[in-house]
Amino acid sequence: MLDLESLIAILEACKKNKIAELIVRKDSVEIRTVSPSGGAAPAAAAPQPQVSLPAEEEAEEEAAAPAKPAEPAASTNVIQLTAPTPGVAYVHPGTTVDREPLPKEGDVVEAGQVVGLVEAMKLFNEVTAPKKAKLSKILVENEEIVKTGDVLIELEPL
Fold it and tell me: Does the predicted TM-score (pTM) go above 0.70?
């Protein structure tokens, strides 16, 4: 059976990729989600036991608000970069996943530069610098499991 975090990751991926309908079957359980903005009526599926999870609606609402850099703290000039989705964080300097190596603490990063990745269901979500800054602190371990909104990295704007 799918755990709740996996289900949330699937729902977020569907929303992000504008998938109108998705059916997930595991053993004798079928979970079906249909986007309210989906076009035509879905085709009929073979009868299967269906499970409705009460957290599904909350997960969809949570997925609708993409994670973005938190506002700088009033007393300090720090930008906090958060996990855009639950998954496995890749933040270790030199880590590559078919990309350039990730920066290390103390490196200067450019606006839009990838500073970390969060893998959810084999999809890699990029964590990018919103503007030119110095990577001041990596707050999670490489390959640590994170939740949406967890602070991964702190930047000091230049």
Answer: no
